Amino acid sequence: MSLPNLREKIDRRQAVVGVIGLGYVGLPVACRFAQAGFSVIGLDVKADRIATICAGKNPIEGIEPGLAELIAQVVGEGQLHATTDYAGLKQADVVLIDVETPVDQDHVPHYEALKAACQSLGAVLKDGALVIVESTIAPGTVAGVVRPLLQSVSGKVLNRDFYVGACPERVMPGRLLANLNSMSRVCGGSTPETAEVMVALYRTIVQADLDPADCVTAELVKTAENAYRDVNIAFANELALACEVTGGDFLRVRELVNKSPGRNVLLAGAGVGGHCIPKDSWLLARGANGLAPVQLLSAARAVNDHMPAHMADLVRKMVEEATGRDIAQARVAVLGYAYLEESDDTRNSPSEVLAALLRNWSAEVVIHDPWVPGYEGDLFDRVRGCDAAVLMVAHRAYKALDLARLKAALRTPVLVDGRRAFTAEQAQAAGLRYRAVGLGPRQE
Ligand code: SAJ
What is the mean pLDDT of residues 88-98? Predict the structure, then answer.
């Protein structure tokens, strides 16, 4: 089938859409194309997830407005079929790939899931099909991994017998359907005509800008937008460290710097977690490494990855000063285990790093987080008898904390604030010894 024929089938909603990977990216997009009138075949290797979806139920954790209802609707109407069998994709005119693309401890992506998907899809790839990678991948991955694998397994020739594209997702847990609808997308195609067909396809579900491009541009934009955030957070963190040693107050300095036109210093904090920001910086560095001597990206990663260690140093200094005992005799309460406020997601959590560092010093560590199963419960019970409370996540529940009650529950009244949830005045009024990221001891 030629691209014009595919475009016509898309315009008539007659194209069959396949989606490989029915996680928090793939399942919402499969539902949205089904809702737009396409026949959609969703594929996942997890049989239990497929069974849940076939029952019209939602396997995605967390609060996702509208998703459960949409799954029930499109499965009930027979618009979305879920399967573990790649044979189901034989009829697919368009196939989206939404599988995980993690990096290893050396920050190198290996793409096991992506390669497995291409291997299995190649064996059933329909003539004239358009394969679109939505997963976040390093610049050059469509050219270096996806295209060669699909060609070799299918025996088809790119841009003659099939087409490829990259259209990176911009979803946000908690706003999966909203972001899918309202965030602009880069439609990177293996040819300009392919990109135009991608724009027509996504126009059926996206209300925002759809920008045609080539594949490597799409790969660069996605990794760059998150690397940009990582570098900017690292700048805020380094400024905070400079404030600490010079007796400045990062929040006040930031407020005044941001009065300068074109400045927007982000927030310093206890670390940078999540599954996007830390990983995507490495994907960009990895992809660009062969092209340019990138230094800033890895330096920013080192700054941000150091912040939990900085928190550990602040805790150790405050506890040993306050108790006269070594940190090894201390019990420390870590407030917040998710990577982000009002979230239950603990992927790459800075608190996990902090807890390990404190335990390496033989300190006893107790963890509290109202959002994370296993760590919820009464905060004051959890911190009772501790020699310090360390705030790592700015959950609303923590910002509303009664500091006098916190002080009464602690064995030693020490509060280390990794997110500036409080002020020194509030802490001191409650009788707490207080240190915070970006707040140096007053230099007279
Ligand atoms: N963080 C700081 N200082 C800041 C902002 C964030 O320390 O000023 C920390 C957070 O505490 C967290 C980590 O960085 O540990 C990541 O926070 P995030 O606000 O960037 O949230 P993410 O990881 O969910 O990033 C997502 C990304 N969205 C997509 O990939 C589609 C990112 O591109 C968005 O910019 C970000 O959400 C957003 O703006 O909410």
Answer: 97
Give which of 26, 130, 39, 28 is closest to 79, Cα–Cα. 39
Half-sphere exposure of residue 217: CA atoms within 13 angstroms, side-chain side: 13
pLDDT above 90: residue 396: yes
What does the pLDDT read at residue 106? Answer: 85
Q: Write down the pLDDT at residue 289.
A: 60
What kind and span of H or E run contains 29?
helix 26-35
Q: What distance in angstroms lies between residue 21's CA and the mean position of ligand 1's atoms? A: 24
Does 222 qualify as catalytic in the annotation? yes
* 270 CB-near residues (< 8 Å, 6+ apart): 307, 308, 311, 350, 351, 354, 390, 391, 392, 393, 418, 419, 437
Residues in the chain: 444
pLDDT tens sequence across 345-375: 999 999 999 999 999 999 999 999 999 999 9
Which of 222, 277, 346, 353 to mutate to test ligand 1, by most ligand atoms within 8 A of the CB atom? 277
Tell me the residue ranges of DSSP E strands in 347-391: 364-368, 388-391
Question: Helices 26-35 and 67-76 meet at what angle, rounded to 10?
Answer: 50
Annotation marks residue 276 as catalytic:
yes
The distance from CA 93 to its chain's CA centroid, rounded to whole angstroms, is: 30
Provide the sign of the torsion angle of the four alpha carbons 20, 22, 26, 32, taken in this order: positive
Residue 174 has what pLDDT? 86
Q: Which of 136, 225, 272 to mutate to test ligand 1, by most ligand atoms within 8 A of the CB atom?
A: 272
* pTM of the predicted model as reported, rounded to 2 decimal places: 0.93
What order do you get walking across the sheet with 331-335 strand by strand? 364-368, 331-335, 388-391, 414-417, 433-436
142-169 pLDDT, tens digit each: 999 999 999 999 999 999 999 999 999 9
Tokens 């392919």, residue located? 194
Phi–psi pair at 356, nearest 5 degrees: -65, -40
